[in-house]
Amino acid sequence: MEYRNGKKEDFINIEKFVKDAIFPSFYRDDLSEEQLKENEWVISVSEKSCLSAIERKDCGILVAHENELAGFIIADKSPKDHPEIDWLIVSHKYQGKGVAKKLTQMAIEWIGEKEAIKLGVIHFNKRAIKFYEKLGFKDSGKIVGKHKIPRILMIREASS
Ligand SMILES: CC(C)(COP(=O)(O)OP(=O)(O)OC[C@H]1O[C@@H](n2cnc3c(N)ncnc32)[C@H](O)[C@@H]1OP(=O)(O)O)[C@@H](O)C(=O)NCCC(=O)NCCS
After folding, report:
1. 146: CA distance to ligand 1 center in Å?
2. Considering the entire predicted model, what is its pTM?
3. For the chain, which residues make up each domain, given as ranges?
4. Atom nearest to 121 CA in ligand 1
Protein backbone atom coordinates (compact mmCIF):
# COMPACT_ATOMS: atom_id res chain seq x y z
CA MET A 1 0.00 0.00 0.00
CA GLU A 2 1.30 3.41 -0.96
CA TYR A 3 0.59 6.38 1.34
CA ARG A 4 1.11 9.85 -0.12
CA ASN A 5 -0.37 13.27 -0.72
CA GLY A 6 -3.57 13.19 -2.74
CA LYS A 7 -3.56 14.27 -6.42
CA LYS A 8 -6.45 15.39 -8.57
CA GLU A 9 -6.48 12.06 -10.50
CA ASP A 10 -7.07 10.11 -7.26
CA PHE A 11 -10.52 11.61 -6.90
CA ILE A 12 -12.14 10.72 -10.20
CA ASN A 13 -15.38 8.93 -9.23
CA ILE A 14 -14.96 9.96 -5.62
CA GLU A 15 -18.72 10.35 -5.14
CA LYS A 16 -19.28 6.65 -5.82
CA PHE A 17 -16.32 5.76 -3.61
CA VAL A 18 -17.78 7.76 -0.71
CA LYS A 19 -21.34 6.55 -1.31
CA ASP A 20 -20.27 2.89 -1.16
CA ALA A 21 -17.93 3.34 1.82
CA ILE A 22 -20.29 5.24 4.13
CA PHE A 23 -23.00 2.60 3.81
CA PRO A 24 -24.04 1.24 6.29
CA SER A 25 -22.01 3.31 8.83
CA PHE A 26 -23.89 6.57 8.19
CA TYR A 27 -27.33 4.89 7.99
CA ARG A 28 -29.97 3.58 10.34
CA ASP A 29 -33.49 2.39 9.63
CA ASP A 30 -35.04 5.31 11.50
CA LEU A 31 -33.36 8.16 9.57
CA SER A 32 -35.77 10.88 8.45
CA GLU A 33 -35.96 12.21 4.89
CA GLU A 34 -33.96 15.23 6.02
CA GLN A 35 -31.26 13.05 7.53
CA LEU A 36 -31.05 10.90 4.41
CA LYS A 37 -30.72 14.09 2.38
CA GLU A 38 -27.84 15.16 4.58
CA ASN A 39 -26.00 11.94 3.73
CA GLU A 40 -26.67 12.63 0.05
CA TRP A 41 -25.24 16.10 0.59
CA VAL A 42 -22.06 14.62 2.14
CA ILE A 43 -21.62 12.47 -0.98
CA SER A 44 -22.31 15.41 -3.30
CA VAL A 45 -19.67 17.69 -1.73
CA SER A 46 -16.95 15.01 -1.61
CA GLU A 47 -15.32 15.91 -4.94
CA LYS A 48 -15.30 19.63 -4.22
CA SER A 49 -13.91 19.01 -0.72
CA CYS A 50 -11.07 16.81 -1.98
CA LEU A 51 -10.10 19.09 -4.86
CA SER A 52 -10.19 22.16 -2.66
CA ALA A 53 -8.07 20.40 0.01
CA ILE A 54 -5.38 19.75 -2.64
CA GLU A 55 -5.24 23.46 -3.43
CA ARG A 56 -5.43 24.86 0.09
CA LYS A 57 -2.24 25.45 2.06
CA ASP A 58 -4.09 25.03 5.37
CA CYS A 59 -5.40 21.57 4.40
CA GLY A 60 -3.61 18.27 4.06
CA ILE A 61 -5.09 15.45 2.00
CA LEU A 62 -3.49 12.02 2.14
CA VAL A 63 -4.42 8.89 0.26
CA ALA A 64 -3.81 5.17 0.57
CA HIS A 65 -3.41 3.72 -2.92
CA GLU A 66 -2.90 0.22 -4.28
CA ASN A 67 -3.60 0.32 -8.03
CA GLU A 68 -6.79 2.07 -6.95
CA LEU A 69 -7.87 4.43 -4.20
CA ALA A 70 -8.19 2.54 -0.88
CA GLY A 71 -8.85 5.51 1.41
CA PHE A 72 -8.27 9.17 2.08
CA ILE A 73 -8.13 11.64 4.93
CA ILE A 74 -8.41 15.43 5.01
CA ALA A 75 -6.89 17.48 7.82
CA ASP A 76 -7.86 21.14 8.09
CA LYS A 77 -5.80 23.63 10.06
CA SER A 78 -8.15 26.56 9.50
CA PRO A 79 -10.60 26.24 12.47
CA LYS A 80 -9.80 28.85 15.13
CA ASP A 81 -10.07 26.48 18.11
CA HIS A 82 -8.33 23.29 16.94
CA PRO A 83 -7.21 21.73 13.67
CA GLU A 84 -9.73 19.19 12.45
CA ILE A 85 -9.84 15.82 10.81
CA ASP A 86 -12.58 16.53 8.37
CA TRP A 87 -12.86 13.39 6.22
CA LEU A 88 -11.66 9.83 6.72
CA ILE A 89 -13.02 7.23 4.34
CA VAL A 90 -11.70 3.75 3.57
CA SER A 91 -13.43 1.53 1.01
CA HIS A 92 -14.93 -1.75 2.26
CA LYS A 93 -12.37 -3.80 0.39
CA TYR A 94 -9.55 -2.27 2.45
CA GLN A 95 -11.23 -1.85 5.84
CA GLY A 96 -9.81 -3.68 8.85
CA LYS A 97 -6.27 -3.69 7.41
CA GLY A 98 -4.82 -0.72 9.26
CA VAL A 99 -5.34 1.75 6.39
CA ALA A 100 -7.29 4.29 8.45
CA LYS A 101 -4.84 3.95 11.31
CA LYS A 102 -1.90 4.79 9.06
CA LEU A 103 -3.75 7.69 7.38
CA THR A 104 -4.77 9.12 10.76
CA GLN A 105 -1.24 8.82 12.16
CA MET A 106 0.07 10.64 9.08
CA ALA A 107 -2.58 13.36 9.44
CA ILE A 108 -1.69 13.81 13.13
CA GLU A 109 1.95 14.11 12.13
CA TRP A 110 1.06 16.66 9.43
CA ILE A 111 -0.91 18.75 11.93
CA GLY A 112 1.77 18.35 14.60
CA GLU A 113 1.61 16.32 17.84
CA LYS A 114 1.72 19.56 19.86
CA GLU A 115 -1.75 20.57 18.68
CA ALA A 116 -5.05 19.32 20.02
CA ILE A 117 -7.13 17.87 17.17
CA LYS A 118 -10.90 17.72 16.85
CA LEU A 119 -13.33 15.80 14.73
CA GLY A 120 -17.04 15.16 14.48
CA VAL A 121 -18.42 11.65 14.18
CA ILE A 122 -22.01 10.51 13.68
CA HIS A 123 -23.30 9.50 17.11
CA PHE A 124 -24.29 5.97 16.04
CA ASN A 125 -21.09 5.26 14.05
CA LYS A 126 -19.76 2.95 16.78
CA ARG A 127 -16.99 1.50 14.69
CA ALA A 128 -15.50 4.91 13.88
CA ILE A 129 -15.86 6.06 17.50
CA LYS A 130 -13.99 2.95 18.75
CA PHE A 131 -11.39 3.46 16.04
CA TYR A 132 -10.76 7.11 17.04
CA GLU A 133 -10.59 6.15 20.73
CA LYS A 134 -7.78 3.73 19.90
CA LEU A 135 -5.90 6.64 18.38
CA GLY A 136 -6.28 8.84 21.46
CA PHE A 137 -9.46 10.81 20.68
CA LYS A 138 -11.97 11.20 23.51
CA ASP A 139 -15.68 11.88 23.42
CA SER A 140 -16.00 15.49 24.64
CA GLY A 141 -19.65 14.96 25.56
CA LYS A 142 -20.55 17.75 23.14
CA ILE A 143 -22.34 17.77 19.85
CA VAL A 144 -20.58 19.63 17.04
CA GLY A 145 -22.31 21.77 14.40
CA LYS A 146 -25.96 21.74 13.45
CA HIS A 147 -26.18 18.52 11.52
CA LYS A 148 -29.45 16.71 10.97
CA ILE A 149 -27.65 13.56 12.10
CA PRO A 150 -25.85 14.75 15.24
CA ARG A 151 -22.05 14.49 15.33
CA ILE A 152 -20.17 13.83 18.57
CA LEU A 153 -17.19 16.13 19.11
CA MET A 154 -14.06 14.06 19.79
CA ILE A 155 -10.78 15.67 20.81
CA ARG A 156 -7.25 14.36 20.92
CA GLU A 157 -5.29 16.43 23.40
CA ALA A 158 -1.91 17.82 22.44
CA SER A 159 1.01 15.77 23.64
CA SER A 160 3.17 17.74 26.07
C1 LIG B 1 -13.91 3.91 10.39
C2 LIG B 1 -12.95 3.53 9.29
C3 LIG B 1 -12.30 4.78 8.73
C4 LIG B 1 -11.90 2.57 9.85
O5 LIG B 1 -11.03 2.21 8.79
P6 LIG B 1 -10.15 0.88 8.78
O7 LIG B 1 -9.10 1.06 7.75
O8 LIG B 1 -11.05 -0.29 8.64
O9 LIG B 1 -9.53 0.88 10.24
P10 LIG B 1 -8.18 0.17 10.64
O11 LIG B 1 -8.09 -1.14 9.96
O12 LIG B 1 -7.04 1.13 10.44
O13 LIG B 1 -8.40 -0.05 12.19
C14 LIG B 1 -7.51 0.51 13.11
C15 LIG B 1 -7.87 0.06 14.47
O16 LIG B 1 -9.27 0.18 14.77
C17 LIG B 1 -9.78 -1.09 15.15
N18 LIG B 1 -11.11 -1.29 14.65
C19 LIG B 1 -11.48 -1.32 13.37
N20 LIG B 1 -12.78 -1.64 13.34
C21 LIG B 1 -13.20 -1.80 14.61
C22 LIG B 1 -14.43 -2.14 15.21
N23 LIG B 1 -15.51 -2.43 14.48
N24 LIG B 1 -14.51 -2.20 16.55
C25 LIG B 1 -13.43 -1.94 17.29
N26 LIG B 1 -12.23 -1.62 16.78
C27 LIG B 1 -12.13 -1.56 15.45
C28 LIG B 1 -8.86 -2.10 14.54
O29 LIG B 1 -8.88 -3.29 15.30
C30 LIG B 1 -7.54 -1.42 14.64
O31 LIG B 1 -6.99 -1.52 15.91
P32 LIG B 1 -5.59 -2.31 16.15
O33 LIG B 1 -4.59 -1.60 15.29
O34 LIG B 1 -5.35 -2.14 17.61
O35 LIG B 1 -5.87 -3.70 15.70
C36 LIG B 1 -13.67 2.74 8.15
O37 LIG B 1 -14.44 1.73 8.73
C38 LIG B 1 -14.56 3.61 7.27
O39 LIG B 1 -14.10 4.23 6.31
N40 LIG B 1 -15.85 3.61 7.56
C41 LIG B 1 -16.84 4.33 6.74
C42 LIG B 1 -16.62 5.83 6.79
C43 LIG B 1 -16.50 6.32 8.21
O44 LIG B 1 -17.24 5.91 9.09
N45 LIG B 1 -15.56 7.25 8.40
C46 LIG B 1 -15.38 7.93 9.65
C47 LIG B 1 -16.22 9.15 9.56
S48 LIG B 1 -15.97 10.23 10.89
Report:
1. 25
2. 0.95
3. 2-156
4. 48
CA dihedral over 72, 11, 124, 157, signed as positive or negative: positive
The answer, yes or no, to whether any atom of ligand 1 lies below 6 A from the CB of 36, is no
Of the residues 105, 127, 156, which should be mutated to test ligand 1's pocket, given the most ligand atoms within 8 Å of the CB? Answer: 127
Q: What is the CATH number of domain 2-156?
A: 3.40.630.30
85-124 per-position pLDDT tens digit: 999 999 999 999 999 999 999 999 999 989 999 999 999 9
How many whole angstroms separate alpha carbon 152 and alpha carbon 103?
21
The best mutation among 122, 131, 144, 155 to test binding of ligand 1, ranked by most ligand atoms within 8 Å of the C-beta, falls on: 131
